[in-house]
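Q: Got a minute? One more chain.
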Amino acid sequence: MFYNSRFFYVMFLSYFRLIEKIKLYAIKMKKLIILTLVFLIFSCNGNAQKNNQKESKVYSVTKTESEWKAKLSPLAFNVLRNGGTEHAFTSDLNKNYGNGTYVCAGCNTPLFKSENKYDSGSGWPSFDKEIKGNVVFSSGSNYIYGIEEHCAICGGHLGHVFNDGPKNTTGLRHCINGAALKFIPENE
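A: Always. Here it is, folded:
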């Protein structure tokens, strides 16, 4: 009889200790969940906030959506005005090595010089340096795709800049959509 009552007493204590451990675990999990929710709430920066920030900047060249559509090809409109990306290796400017200046397809602002163009193998026209003051940078929506580049005059999306360019110059690779550019030969 002593054995049975002691057995039940030990079982009761074990069960009680298990319940206490579960309660402690639940309290820790509750704190972790609350901490995670607080972090997510305060670090959240949704696309709506980003779009509002971008739209609040006023550029010296502005047009309505219908004016941009009339001026640009459908691909150039998607790239410049919607932040789209053309398919790699589809732009004629990717393998263009003539002397001249690459200008914005939306407003003709000079953006890059041919002397700064190189073949990065990425499939998009690449430059190691922009024409200062004519290109602006923003963090964009995802750092995997690098820092976004825009025309400083019309705000058109150009592409992205990465830090994997030629080490003997700037170390930067401005990876630009060919649809966002026009090439003006040196003699024109």
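A: The chain is about 35% helix and 20% strand.
Q: Perfect, thanks.
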